[in-house]
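Progress against Task 2.4 (sequence-to-structure conversion) is shown through the following example record, which the project officer requested during the mid-term review.
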Amino acid sequence: MKYELNPYNRNVSDTDFLNDLKRVASDIKKDSLSVEEYGKNGKYHPSTIQRRFGSWTKATELAGLQIRKNPKLSGDDLIEDLKRVASVLNKKTITQNEYKSLGKYDSAPLVRVFGSWFGALEKAGLERSRTLGVTNEEYFENLEKIWTKLGRQPKYAEIEKQFSKYSAGAYERRFGSWRKALEAFIKYINEGEDERLTTEGKIEPDVEQNNADIQTIQHKTKRNINWRLRFIIMKRDNFKCLKCGRSPSSDSSVVLHVDHIKPYSKGGETILENLETLCMVCNIGKSNLE
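Structure tokens generated for the chain above:
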């Protein structure tokens, strides 16, 4: 059961892009559109549109929208606002996404004026925001949690602090682009399935105490369900509890578990056919019944 990403936007026509720009502008009742506004409401990622038309200004112009003229900003103005946002958040460092959420300006002028985001942070007397020493697997496990919570493939604009442990920019820096990060994640998940479903060799026997009798069961798979296999099962089950139908995407209080259908202690194996997605409430109820 191999998984693939949603179709890439490479085959989307210019007309489709422009129509979506018009749609978003109409939805938010504006005659012009910023990158941030489209990022929160658009069907595609703003950078995809920028690459297709050469610039955001050109794209919005072709969509028949008014062009916003950026005010001339001094370095002092930018640094002052950067410090203000850090003060509001009460943090010694901030990410570009955090600044975009609370800042008066876009992060692009800061990068352009000071050479990099880190250069702007240093000028403002703030610390670097990049997390060092993070492994690819840690990035993937974070992505799995977001994917599970949304119940679908996450978008670039959704990878923000509080919701995500790492920023979207961190994924871009590590993997080259957001799309490449998703591709690497899917490859890792699919490789994990192959490894998990071909586990053979000497597995410690599961011993169950049943009254005075001791029953020893020789298993071919390990009992533990790692996060990669858990993701495969939950994605197969559409990130919903198979008993009550609830999902984290519609109710944030829902916590999903993956459990054995036939208990491991009774000979059930850790394989796709013997695993199911249940919410925490239904899983606890199931355990009580057993």
